[in-house]
Amino acid sequence: MKSRKLLALAISITALAATPAVASAGTVFGGGQLAGNGLNVFTFNMTTPATGTASVIDIQSGNRITGTVSCVNVSGNQASFIVLVDPTLSQGVTNVVAQLFYVADNGFDPASPTDAQRNGPLTAKQLIKLGGPSACPDPTTPPKALTPIVQGDITVQP
């Protein structure tokens, strides 16, 4: 019974992934480091319609999530995007099918970075509840405050 549910969930995600992504126009790219519970390094590069890649590495654990962008939503200096996890390029993560990002471009100051981001893993159930891989949420209303980066730069171009 459990294997049937997992198969149905996998089929649902595959069907949702085949749905074309709807997103606002824009370009989002960046890279840097976050400080918090653990030091995280991130990179991403994408345009709309959704094309591009992203990666997040937890330096302490060595966990890595890498994948392709399935949707991008840009509003002013903020963006949200979903990355579908590529299991052949990711390591140390289980039950994670996607990563949801919120980013803010607050200008460039190499001496004191002001940009911020938040990212979090999504299970298959969470991704479906969100609306699927092409359902990028409003970038101006992240569920929690964004974390300032300690090094790097984020660029959001509407």
Count the domains. Answer: 1
Largest sheet descriptor? 8 strands, antiparallel, barrel
Shape: globular
Element-by-element helix/strand order: HEEEEEEEHE
Average of per-residue pLDDT values: 81
Radius of gyration: 15 Å
* SSE class: mainly beta
Q: State the total count of DSSP E strands.
A: 8
What is the subunit organization of this protein?
A: single chain
The fraction of residues assigned to DSSP E strands is 35-45%
Cα distance spanning the termini: 47 Å
Strand order of the largest sheet: 1-2-3-4-5-6-7-8
The parts where pLDDT drops under 50 for at least 5 residues are 1-23
Helix content: 10-25%
Number of helices: 2
Explain this structure:
The protein has 158 residues and is mainly β. It has one domain (2-157). The protein has two helices and eight strands, in the order αβββββββαβ. The longest helix has 16 residues, at 2-17. The relative contact order is 0.24.
